[in-house]
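Bumping with the actual sequence this time:
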Amino acid sequence: MKEILQTIIESLVEDKAGIQINQIDGERSIVFEVKVAEKDMGRVIGKEGRIAKAIRTIFKAVAAKEQKKVTIEFID
């Protein structure tokens, strides 16, 4: 799942070297902490959070297949 998130984020940002994704595994959940360069944060979140919401929706569908809960946090 981390590779899918990495690919999506890379396609959105200009500074690909500034991407950091931290995966925290729980028993029935996974938390992804996403950090990008400050200038790219707006691109990842989108107007009114639409892109961030779309990314979260995609991962809910992927996680449902694996019977897990996924949370994606965008960190400044």
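The tokens above came from a reply further down the thread. The CA atoms of residues 6 and 24 lie 15 Å apart.
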